[in-house]
Amino acid sequence: MRAHYYLGLAIILSVLNILEAKCKKCFPPDFIWGVSSSAYQVEGAWNTSGKGENIWDWYTHTYPEKIADGNNGDIATDSYGKWREDVELVRDLGVGFYRFSLSWARILPDGTTGYVNQAGVDYYLNIIKALKEHHIEPLVTIYHWDLPLTLLHQGGWLNKTMADRFAEYATLCFELFGPYVKHWVTVNEPYIHCYNAYGTGLHAPGVNESGTATYKCLYTCALAHAKAYRVYQGRFKEQQNGQVGPVLACSWFAPLTNSTEDVLTAENALLWDLGLVADPLVHGNWPQTTIDRIGNLSSLQGFNSSRLPEFSDKEKLLMKGSYDFLALNYYTTDIVTPIPNVSSIELTTISYDIDKNFSPSYDPKWPQAASPWLRSNPIGLRNTLNWLKDRYGGPRIFITENGWSEKQGILNDTARVDYIKGHLCNVLRASRMDNVNVIGYFYWSLLNSYEWTAGYTELFGLVEVDFQNPDRTRTPKESYYYYKNVAETNCLDYCPFR
Ligand code: NOJ
After folding, report:
1. Is the CB of 54 under 6 A from ligand 1?
2. How confident is the model at residue 2 (pLDDT cuts 50, 70, 90)?
3. Does some domain include residue 80?
4. What backbone torsions phi and psi does residue 164 show, to the nearest 5 degrees?
5. Which atom of ligand 1 is nearest to the CA of 405?
6. How far apart are CA 164 and CA 222, in angstroms?
7. Annotated catalytic residue: which of 43, 315, 346, 401?
8. 107 located within any domain
């Protein structure tokens, strides 16, 4: 009797094990795990060791009222002083990659290659070498929004020659760090950068001309990327054997209903935000629908030519195919609907948002992060990956950012764990079920850090930083340990395929 009981129990347990194993799903063996950061958001040391002033130093000092808590990145997480600790946190996390950005003004204080600040170069060489000693690969962002202030005085990204300054700076980076760095991304999120820096005016340098300046900035950024890519191909690739890609950013845009109009609006929205950056680099020009829309509106509005700059044939050739992989920063989803009857507004308002011609909303059931724009809809990531695969012919894709913000002081960050779980499951499905060539995932970010105009009020880190403490003490959160387990096992405990 007793024997039967134990036999039955054993059978039930093994069936449960089989069922559980069926739901435990693993990433491809060479899948890359990483964490991300950026210079202005973590380094601090804004005016030490020869660093030049950049637009964020200037902006936050001049207009503290534009930042939610009036704060700045003068000290931030003090990663300039505490980089060794950061490297150890990355090592203990068990990931194979660390994405960080180079501060242009720390290396070239006046933005040009006329003078190189050796202390800045050494800082990055030290980090890179320490990472390599721990078998961690650097993925380096050349520009993450912190333009040297001197270059703003030359017109910043509205001046086409900025593409040349960027290419010169990138060339120097390839020379200095290229022997150790095999993965480069050029301009972080040109769309978000250009929209906020030159459109809404919320980010440095605070220009508020969204229907014109945003496009000029995007145009220069596309050329900047392509020039840097070609330099790498021509002068460094053979010896250094690395790869260079652009960083795209986008919400997934979901149609409100299945009506043809809503579906077209959603597709158009994707072409607008993702396509404006990716199409020129993959196909050699802006998306045709965008060219038509801005061209038509511009002429109705009395402009002599389109507000969207035109690429020359030479520039199209330079740009076309200028990538080895695409890097995607994905956070959230918007539901889009067309804007009805905008014709009178269209004619009087010169604005990127009117050009786009859709209005975003969201599903109130989606969990809300501390950032007002951030809600969790994990399937949006899978959809975005599929969209990129279909439009750009199955490129290799790194997810270089994905993350969740909360307020200070939450170590037991279950909402972040849920966010990561949900999104990773959708990455896995995209990889295993949809054949998307997604090769890595980087959580944003390693540390709680400076969140641009939100100051220190929206914190994305796997690691808490005590900003009241001059030592900027770091404490790993629950999500750090969750992500460590995923990175080390390469598997998710539960992710049914559907
Ligand atoms: C994207 C940006 O690259 C990064 O700087 C920012 O902190 C995160 N999004 C979160 O907003």
Report:
1. no
2. low
3. yes
4. -75, -40
5. 10
6. 12
7. 401
8. yes
Q: From the CA atom positions of the chain, what is the Rg in Å?
A: 23
Domain span holding position 296: 37-489
Whether residue 189 lies in the annotated active site: yes
Helix, strand, or coil (residue 219): helix
pLDDT tens by residue, 265-309: 999 999 999 999 999 999 999 999 999 999 999 999 999 999 999
Cβ(444) to ligand 1 under 6 A? yes
Residue nearest to atom 5 of ligand 1 (CA): 38
Better pLDDT: 334 or 2: 334
Which of 329, 330, 405 maximizes ligand 1 atoms within 8 Å of its Cβ, making it the mutation to test the pocket? 329
Digit-coded pLDDT (tens) for 164-178: 999 999 999 999 999
Q: Which residue's CA is the nearest one to ligand 1's atom 7? A: 451
**What is the predicted pLDDT for the residue at 263?**
95
Known catalytic residue: 65? no
At 446, which amino acid appears?
L
> Distance from the CA of 304 to the center of ligand 1, in angstroms?
37
> How many structural domains compose the chain?
1
Q: Which amino acid is at 496?
A: P
CB atoms within 10 A of CB 183: 22
At 52, which CATH number? 3.20.20.80
Q: Does residue 235 contact residue 265 with C-beta atoms inside 8 Å?
A: no
> Does ligand 1 come within 6 angstroms of the Cβ of 53?
no
| Spatial contact of 128 and 180, defined as CB atoms under 8 Å apart | yes
pLDDT in tens, 354-400: 898 888 999 999 999 999 999 999 999 999 999 999 999 999 999 99
- CA 77, CA 72: separation in Å to the nearest integer? 11
List the catalytic residue out of 189, 315, 346, 464: 189
> Distance between CA 103 and CA 245 in Å, rounded?
18
- Residue 449 CA to residue 80 CA, distance in Å, equals 13
Atom of ligand 1 nearest to the CA of 38: 5
What's 256's DSSP letter? S
User: Mean pLDDT throughout 56-67?
Assistant: 98
pTM to 2 decimal places:
0.95
Indicate whether 10 belongs to any domain.
no
Q: Is 109 within the bounds of a domain? A: yes
pLDDT for the residue numbered 399: 98
Coil, strand or helix at 171 = helix
Q: 111-129 as b/e, with b when 16 or more CB fall inside 10 Å?
A: beeeeebeebbebbeebbe
